[in-house]
Structure formats: structure tokens, C-alpha cells
Amino acid sequence: MALTSGLGGQLSIDLGALARNWRALDKVSAGALTGAVVKADAYGTGITVASKALHAAGARFFFVATPDEGMAVRAAVPEAHIFVMNGLYPGAANLYIRQNLMPVLCSVEMLEEWLAKCLERNEAYPSAFHFDTGINRLGFRLNEAGFVRERIEALGYAPQMLMSHLACADQPNHEKNRTQLALFGSVMTQFQGIPASLANSAGLMSGRDYHFQMVRPGISLYGGRALVGRKNPMAAVVTLHVPILQVKEARTGETVGYGAGYSLSRDSRLAIISHGYADGFFRSLSATNSRPGGKVAIRGKLFPVIGRVSMDQVVVDITELGPDIPKPGEGAEVLGANISVDDQGDAAGTIGYEVLTSLKGRYNRNYVGDGNLPPA
After folding, report:
1. Do 203 and 276 share a structural domain?
2. Annotated catalytic sites, by residue?
3. Which of 98, 184, 258, 336 to pair with 289, CA 20 to 30 A apart?
């Protein structure tokens, strides 16, 4: 692939694929509302553009981690319903109210601060309540449910939604999922008539028992794998091509990269590409003679990274390409039709989530596809 604009890497984000993924998940979750998780800069795709595309596809409920992210969505989609999953930041209630953001309250301290602000202004500002059913991150403890219920009943306040989060949803048969489902059900009995949300992407795909009134997909929207051991049905959203800087010949016994941890066992042809850990290509994708690293695709074929990944460059062994030598400036595929975000994540010993959210490198961003389709 020849690069057509700019001199650096080309990061393309397919808004049409993003919209199709949301609509596909919305069909699976029929009977429940389908939100959209756009935290972490919409998983590296750009929170402003992605939020607009998801709204055009039909999403009305958005989930962010921080109030800053919430404000970005509010500016992009003024009519959005926005939940801030990290809860109420201390002293920030006025900001949430001014920006019409709903904190996902997860502690008694947060609850008291929010209720105090509601009393001060004589208005029941909306929020959600998050109960920890076994992941031990944010959330009210289960034994606090009675106190929370009594506290809000005394004031005539009701949350917009009850939430919890699955610890092992990527493994659909894990016993922890059923345990958390039962515990969440026990919380719901104490808050009759309040809508509930438990399912992330993996929970959404695991079965209707986890859907309740709203699902909140994240990774699947952006083309990543949600369930371990199953074929990923989602359309790829992100592709990344970076330029080849030089092609050179190297001899048997010569070493490649910092640390001299890779020695050539044959005469080789190497491509040096303009990409490194400063661009989100992890050092764990480095290769030694005893451990393979990552791969990139050149002219539709996969080739191994050799030696250590450096800040700005990666070396790829393209000997098997034969005499058809690439030219400087030609593109190497880091993500795309031949290598998914999950392929790179697996090779790096991490997950596609981290690959996507690390795409903050020196790229020319290009939004393609029709992300402004009207709701179906």
C-alpha cells in the first residue's frame, strides 16, 4: 500500500464500520437500550468524531470515565444522556449539573455529596448507583444497599439506573458470571422499579440474562474481540499503515537492534519502518533468537519483527519477500486486513483494548466511511 498523504503513519478510522457495529449490537440486545462506551478517547478513535457517528447510528446513552470526557461528548452531541462511570469527583457537583452529566455514584461519600447538592438546589438531579458484585473496584458494598435505599427513600430520591460490572464476562462459562448475576439480582430487589445495567460487550454477547434494561458495549464497537475462544464477529474500525524508511542487506551473524539480542542466522533483507514504542508499538513486541515478537504486513504478507522495538523504528525481516524489494515510502500494515488489534495484543502479551487506547502516536488521522447515516 502506497501512502497517499502526509509523511508519517496513516491511521484510518472507519466511521461506517463503527456505526454498523453499534447497530449489530443493538439488534442482539433487542428489548434493552444500547448505550455506547466512549471513554479513553473512544478507545483511541477520537471521542468527538466517534460520539457523533454513534449518535447518528442511533445511540442516545453514552458512558465515559471522567467529567472531562463527559464534557467532550456534551459538546459533540448536545442532546446525549451521559453517565460518568468514575463517579462524582469531590467538589465537582456544580460542574456535573452545569454540563448535565450523571455521576455513577459508588460510595456513601459520593451519595451524600450529591444528595446535599440536590437539597441545596431543591432539585433531584439524575445519577446512577453502582454496586460492587465481586470485582472489587468502584462500587457500593452489597451490605450498604439497605442504608442507601433508606437514605434515598427518606428524601424521595431515585437514581436513573442501577449498575454493576462483570469481572469475567470475556469467559462466558466462568462461574463468577453467574454469581455476580445472582448478587446483582439481590440488589435489584431492594430498588424496585429502577432500570438496571450489567452487560459490557462480552456480557451483551453472553446471553439475554445479562441484558436487563440497558447494555453498554465498548470494545466491540471498535472492532475488538470481547469473548475469549470465539470468532470475533465485529467489523474492524481501525487500520494503521506506516512508511518503510530503508531496505538493507545484512549478513549472517550480525545483530539487530539495541542490546544485540537478535543475531541473524542467515543473510537477510531487512525493512526499517517508521514506527516504535512512541507510537504505541509496545516494546514487548520485540524479538530475540529465543522469543518471537510481533508482525507487520508488507504487500499483503506477514513478516516478523526482529530485534528490539525502539522509540522510533522497528526492523522487519522481509527476506521471504524475494527479489520484489519495497521502495522507501511504501506502507507497512501494522493494523488492518492482515493483522487485527487482537493479533497485536496477543503477540504483545496484552489485549486489544490496550492496543487501541495506545494509538496516540505521530499519525495522520483519516476518518473514512459514512458515519453520518440516519438511524435505521
Report:
1. no
2. 39, 258
3. 336
Cβ atoms of residues 103 and 114 within 8 Å: yes
Range of the domain at 253: 238-368
Q: Is 311 annotated as a binding residue?
A: yes
Residue 187 and residue 283 in one domain: no
How do residues 118-177 score in pLDDT, each as one tens digit? 999 999 999 999 999 999 999 999 999 999 999 999 999 999 999 999 999 999 999 999
Q: Are residues 218 and 244 in the same domain?
A: no
Cβ distance 357 to 341 under 8 Å?
no
CB neighbours of 333 closer than 8 A, spacing ≥ 6?
1, 239, 240, 241, 296, 297, 298, 339
Whether 53 is in a domain gets the answer yes
Cβ-contact 2, 242 below 8 angstroms: no
> At 222, phi and psi to the nearest 5?
-100, 10
Distance CA 203, CA 166 (A): 7
Mean pLDDT of all residues belonging to the chain: 95
Q: How far apart, in whole angstroms, are the C-alpha atoms of residue 350 and residue 355?
A: 8
Tell which of 168, 198, 222 closes a domain: 222
Domain boundary among 222, 253, 278: 222
Q: Which residues pair with 303 in a beta bridge?
A: 296
Q: Are 162 and 129 in contact (CB under 8 A)?
A: yes
Asked whether residue 373 is domain-assigned, the answer is: no
Q: Please give the C-alpha separations between residue 98 and each of 94, 106, 160, 314, 326, in angstroms, as whole numbers.
A: 6, 21, 18, 47, 55
- Identify the CATH number of the domain in which residue 61 sits: 3.20.20.10
